[in-house]
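Weekly sync, protein design subgroup
Attendees: M.S., D.O., the rotation student, P.L. (late)

Item 1: inverse folding check
M.S. brought a backbone from last month's batch and wanted to see whether the design step gives back something sensible before we order anything. D.O. pointed out we never logged the input encoding, so this time it goes straight into the notes. Structure tokens as presented (247 positions):
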């Protein structure tokens, strides 16, 4: 299903409220909530709202376990562009989540250790009962996580090469495209698909053409997000601008 909201602020609050409800429901049952998280501009206000719910309304993250979608490779956690730093600054430093419950792909691994690490990342999600909810943004290439065009629908966590357009879109954060890493570690399309609930969000006109393809286009590896059309657990949450090219 596709839900269109007047603007990204209202949409973000709605998604944050859904996450909060999930966390509380699990709390009542004495269970953990396993969340798949994204970085980038899209979820920033969701995290802001979750921080507010924690500080002003007592929402606790003690029972929350998180797995981030991706990290650049190579990447030092304390670098300005690292997704570790992004998550700390936008969410984790401001809530009561247990540090040991946070998982973000490790951008510091030696090349020969990456493959095993990816299998372990995948296994850990499985051992914890799988992702209850995965939130996604979408790149202009149609990537989800860093699953660029050509990604297989059953792909797992792995090392990938970033698309040129993705590196161009990231160039401002890195002060030039030449400084953007060429690779990343990402959960796969298959990993994302196993989540019990998937929410893909997009705001602004810049995303309208790719949203049209993702929601209405032919299902194809050329636009990885089109694979989401095959899942019954997906909701596209859009602002009016991102939805503006849907027929
Ligand atoms: C980030 C991620 C990416 C972004 C996408 C959109 O963890 O997996 O797929 O969601 O590149 O980025 P923004 O939100 O910055 O437009």
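Designed sequence read out in the meeting:
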């Amino acid at each position: 299903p596709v839900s269109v909201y007047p603007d990204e602020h209202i949409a973000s609050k709605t998604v944050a409220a859904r996450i909060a409800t999930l966390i509380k429901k699990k709390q009542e049952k004495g269970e953990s909530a396993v969340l798949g998280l994204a970085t980038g501009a899209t979820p920033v206000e969701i995290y802001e709202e979750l921080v507010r719910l924690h500080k002003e309304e007592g929402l606790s993250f003690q029972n929350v376990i998180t797995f981030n979608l991706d990290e650049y490779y190579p990447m030092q956690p304390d670098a300005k562009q690292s997704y570790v730093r992004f998550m700390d600054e936008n969410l984790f430093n401001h809530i009561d989540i247990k540090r040991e419950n946070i998982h973000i792909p490790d951008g510091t691994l030696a090349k020969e250790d990456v493959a095993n690490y990816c299998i372990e990342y995948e296994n850990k999600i499985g051992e914890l009962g799988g992702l209850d909810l995965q939130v996604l943004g979408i790149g202009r290439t149609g990537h989800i996580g860093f699953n660029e065009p050509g990604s297989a629908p059953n792909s797992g966590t792995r090392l990938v090469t970033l698309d040129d357009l993705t590196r161009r879109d990231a160039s401002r954060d890195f002060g030039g495209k030449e400084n953007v890493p060429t690779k990343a570690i990402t959960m796969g399309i298959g990993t994302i698909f196993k989540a019990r609930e998937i929410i893909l969000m997009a705001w602004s006109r810049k995303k309208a053409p790719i949203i049209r393809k993702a929601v209405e286009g032919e299902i194809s590896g050329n636009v990885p997000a089109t694979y989401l059309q095959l899942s019954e657990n997906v909701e596209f949450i859009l602002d009016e601008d991102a939805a503006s090219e849907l027929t």
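Discussion: The longest helix spans residues 8-28. The helical segments are 8-28, 44-57, 83-90, 111-127, 164-169, 171-174, 189-193, 208-216.
Action: P.L. to compare against the previous round before Friday.
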